[in-house]
Amino acid sequence: VMDDRAQRELRGWFTKHAANPRTEIEARIRNVTQIGFEAVMAHLKSNQLWTNSPEERETLDCIHVSGVRETIDSDNRHTFMRKNKIKDVIVQVSPDHPVRFAVAEEMPGSADESPVSQWRFKQRITFVHKGMFSFELTRVRAGTSEQAARSAPISHEIEIEFCGQSIKPMPNAQYLADSLVMKVRDVVSRLCKAADAPQQPAKRPRVAGSALSEGQQVLVSKGAAVALESAGHAVGAPFDGEMPAELAERVPWVLSHVEKDDAGSEHAYIMSLPCAIHTRSYPLFFFYGSVPVAAVVAKSQSSASS
After folding, report:
1. Staple 192 to which of 108, 201, 244, 287, CB 3.0 to 4.6 Å?
2. Residue 101 forms beta bridges with which residues?
3. Quick one: which of 180, 187, 133, 202 has its CA closest to 156?
4. Residues sharing a CB contact under 8 Å with residue 296, sequence separation 6 or more, in sequence order
5. How confident is the model over 135-172, as pLDDT tens digits?
6. Is residue 14 part of a domain?
7. What range(s) does the mRNA triphosphatase Cet1-like domain occupy (predicted)?
């Protein structure tokens, strides 16, 4: 379950570090099986709306005892980097998949002569979403010697990393935290479905005093406008900050979380799924905003009552 501490930490990290090109904010999903990895890969490859052109890249990482990471690419170019961990938090998103959220500073370094403690042969493909978050899927062979690494079994890693340090204007920290969390939930859900375990997927946390769950698909009730915030895209809040009710009710949404304002009123923060308005199509999470909690209903509930 994604706890409040993780949300608070992410908001703080994005507030302080989002615009720093040397700082990385990432989520690493643990216990990734081959079948889950392939399922997530197939899903990502089916999407044609990536900012980049996803291509596989092979590298060798040599981890020196000094802590310096030496990366050798397919053209035999060597780069040296030292990662200084700032903070991390581990969240049990499903029974089988803890997720490590972390913020760290990466500093370029010079050639390092200290011994190598670990070799990591990597095949990685990266999918960049809106120039803001990258999905990094990596097949790894690792060992304490080069020979051991070459003969090691393949392990599978999935990371989601913030890569939008140069975006202007920078989206607000709450949006960035929510967006990262929603992407993590989606990947973990696909891993769980691929595993086909009877206890999966994990139950989503319920919103207190409501039948709604965080991460649940919802609809906005008729007559309710959505107070929009900037979600990046190098523009301010769409529709001058308010999506008219007649449009809001036609957009598919997903519930991020619920917050109380200073007056004690509860507001549901929602993010849009891929949708079309008039002749224009909008990608995942393009619209982000809030409405009174009473103005959102679960999609299944709405369908049943219509």
Report:
1. 201
2. 27, 89
3. 187
4. 212, 218, 219, 220, 221, 253, 255, 268, 270
5. 999 999 999 998 888 888 899 999 999 999 999 999 99
6. yes
7. 73-162
